[in-house]
């Protein structure tokens, strides 16, 4: 781990710095102190010239942990992982429109996860912007699709008020990505105490309409559970963990309802002693089977279930025709209060929530394949682990193998934009440094943001990555046939193959500072995982595997 000099003791400002010094600290310094006062103490960044005054202020103001990422997509993904686990926003500092553009994919995933995240984007100075310099772009236009709010102060008096507006929007409800665009001259000019002036923010419109629920609120959900007709409760968001999960599991057991979870939860609590939840399948055909025959579906901080993609001749809506939808709570609602109200309406319940038993698979032997890999993970997963799952097709057996492991959290690919696994694990490890992090990472996805390994090494993070390598974009091989595009020919097959030339994942990890090894069989994998979990710092275990689909 690289040792960096500690910031100078606080307070040291530009005030009183000598003859000709400004009478007030620069805007960047005031903004940094303002963020710290409001609880933002971690910043993931890949900065550029327009952000240098904020970077320089980090040496004058103690308290902000600044984390360098070698690619903006790592910075945004790490801020997502941090926010999911810390349940408060980190800052993500990016350079102009191109820097924001490089980070958009993982901001998209963060938006879908409703992660609290403050995205700071440096802009040209106000007088420079009309000159159309090479890096000038429509930053606001880039930010809008992934943001609940975009705000750009254009006057010194607006700077701190803009930060307050962005933090409020990021924290919610509903929580999400808030983007603050900061002109460079507002960072370098002195910022005296001024009466605050609110900038005009852009706010995201209401989400695209989905099928309207039959009822909204606890009364309709209570009637559905009392009906005696086939009913399921679909949880997501904040209802996929903690007290709401246990209460809903108890209600489902008492009223004979099925308990389901959205396909890609932002954070799912699971393991021994936790109510087991059946996740809705990724494949539309399997999800339709899970929902088949239902007459009522109660949604608790979960969206209406739809297929991931459109397929010829198939409906995109997964609930059966005629099934009534009841929204107990959405992202903007207090899910805990809504569940409490539902329990009260139903008169409480004497039934206890069913809990997963404590049961691990034994350490596997023999050849390494997707199933024995999953058994090795289940045999070694530590207590209180955070599992970041971007295993894609090769990780299909891991949830089953870990269902009875000690309690842990499961973080998934909420928005479908691959390349989130390594950055998400990086941010999660910084948010909960006392918990081990396991990253299940597919080979193709890893190459989008492999630079995250360098940040893990630099920060000394306890992240163990299992690199699942089938030398292909396996899910695309599978989907090519499902969408009715026909049998692939040599050109199509070449576009989905990663075999020529083969990637040296072990050498790549080592070059980025992470100890790495290849597991050639199942026992080697189990042994390597046990060692990695026992030693501090990051590790990578490379697993060559045959395709599972």
Q: Can you tell me about this structure?
A:
This protein has 549 residues and is an alpha/beta fold. The strands form three sheets. The chain has a seven-stranded mixed sheet, with helices on both faces. A seven-stranded mixed sheet has the order 11-16-15-17-18-20-19, with helices on both faces. A six-stranded parallel sheet has the order 8-14-13-9-10-12. Helix content is 34%, strand content 17%.
Mean pLDDT: 92
| Tally of DSSP β-strands | 20
- CATH C-level class of the largest domain is Alpha Beta
Tell me the number of structural domains.
Answer: 3
Give the CATH superfamily of the largest domain. Answer: Thiamin diphosphate (ThDP)-binding fold, Pyr/PP domains
- The backbone outline, from C-alpha atoms, is globular
Provide a brief overview of the structure.
The protein folds into 3 domains: 173 residues, 3-Layer(aba) Sandwich (Rossmann fold), CATH 3.40.50.970; 131 residues, 3-Layer(aba) Sandwich (Rossmann fold); 175 residues, Rossmann fold (3-Layer(aba) Sandwich), CATH 3.40.50. Helices cover 34% and strands 17% of the residues.
Please outline the helices and strands.
Elements: H1 27-37, E1 42-45, H2 52-57, E2 65-68, H3 72-86, E3 90-95, H4 96-102, H5 104-113, E4 117-123, H6 139-143, E5 149-151, H7 159-171, E6 177-183, H8 184-188, E7 202-203, E8 215-216, H9 218-226, E9 231-235, H10 242-255, E10 258-261, E11 268-270, E12 278-279, H11 284-291, E13 296-300, E14 324-329, H12 335-345, H13 370-380, E15 386-390, H14 398-401, E16 408-411, H15 421-431, E17 437-442, H16 443-446, H17 452-459, E18 463-469, H18 474-482, H19 490-495, H20 505-511, E19 516-518, H21 522-534, E20 539-544
């Amino acid at each position: 781990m690289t040792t960096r000099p500690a910031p100078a003791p606080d307070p040291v400002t530009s005030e009183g710095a000598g003859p000709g010094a400004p009478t007030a600290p620069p805007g960047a310094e005031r903004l940094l102190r303002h963020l710290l006062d409001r609880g933002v103490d971690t910043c993931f960044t890949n900065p550029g010239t327009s952000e240098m005054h904020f970077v320089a202020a980090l040496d004058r103001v103690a308290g902000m942990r600044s984390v360098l990422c070698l690619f903006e997509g790592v910075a945004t993904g790490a801020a997502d992982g941090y926010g999911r686990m810390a349940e408060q926003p980190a800052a993500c500092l990016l350079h102009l429109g191109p820097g924001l553009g490089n980070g958009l994919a993982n901001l998209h995933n963060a938006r879908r996860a409703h992660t609290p995240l403050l995205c700071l984007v440096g802009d040209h100075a106000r007088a420079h912007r009309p000159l159309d310099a090479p890096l000038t772009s429509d930053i606001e236009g880039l930010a809008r699709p992934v943001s609940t709010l975009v705000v750009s102060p254009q006057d010194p008096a607006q700077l701190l008020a803009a930060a307050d507006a962005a933090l409020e929007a990021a924290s919610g409800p509903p929580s999400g990505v808030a983007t603050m665009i900061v002109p460079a001259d507002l960072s370098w000019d002195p910022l005296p105490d001024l009466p605050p002036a609110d900038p005009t923010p852009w706010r995201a419109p209401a989400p695209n309409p989905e099928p309207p629920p039959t009822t909204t609120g606890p009364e309709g959900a209570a009637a559905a559970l009392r009906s005696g007709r086939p009913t399921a409760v679909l949880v997501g968001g904040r209802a996929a963990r903690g007290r709401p999960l246990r209460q809903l599991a108890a209600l489902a057991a008492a009223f004979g309802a099925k308990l389901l979870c959205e396909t890609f939860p932002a954070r799912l609590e699971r393991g021994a002693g936790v109510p087991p939840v059946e996740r809705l399948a990724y494949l539309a055909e399997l999800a339709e089977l899970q929902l088949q025959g239902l007459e009522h579906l109660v949604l608790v901080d979960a969206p209406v279930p739809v297929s991931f993609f459109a397929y010829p001749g198939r409906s995109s809506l997964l609930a059966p025709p005629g099934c009534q939808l009841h929204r107990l709570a959405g992202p903007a609602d207090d899910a805990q209060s809504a569940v409490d109200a539902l329990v009260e309406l139903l008169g409480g319940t004497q039934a206890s929530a069913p809990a997963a038993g404590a049961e691990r698979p034994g350490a596997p032997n023999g050849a390494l394949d997707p199933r024995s890999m999953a058994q090795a993970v289940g045999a070694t997963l530590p207590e209180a682990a955070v599992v970041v799952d971007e295993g894609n097709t090769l990780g299909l057996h891991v949830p089953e193998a870990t269902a009875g492991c000690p309690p842990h959290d499961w973080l998934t690919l909420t928005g479908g934009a691959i390349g989130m696994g390594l950055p998400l694990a990086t941010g999660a490890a910084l948010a909960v440094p006392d918990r081990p992090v396991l990253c299940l990472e597919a080979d193709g996805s890893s190459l989008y943001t492999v630079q995250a390994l360098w940040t893990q090494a630099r920060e000394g993070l306890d992240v163990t990555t299992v690199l699942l390598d089938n030398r292909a974009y396996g899910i695309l091989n599978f989907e090519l046939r499902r969408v009715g595009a026909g049998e692939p020919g040599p050109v199509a097959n070449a576009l989905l193959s990663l075999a020529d030339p083969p990637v040296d994942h072990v050498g790549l990890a080592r070059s980025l500072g992470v100890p790495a090894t290849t597991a050639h069989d199942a026992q080697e994998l189990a042994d390597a995982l046990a060692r990695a979990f026992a030693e501090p710092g990051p590790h990578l275990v490379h697993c060559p595997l045959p395709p599972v689909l």
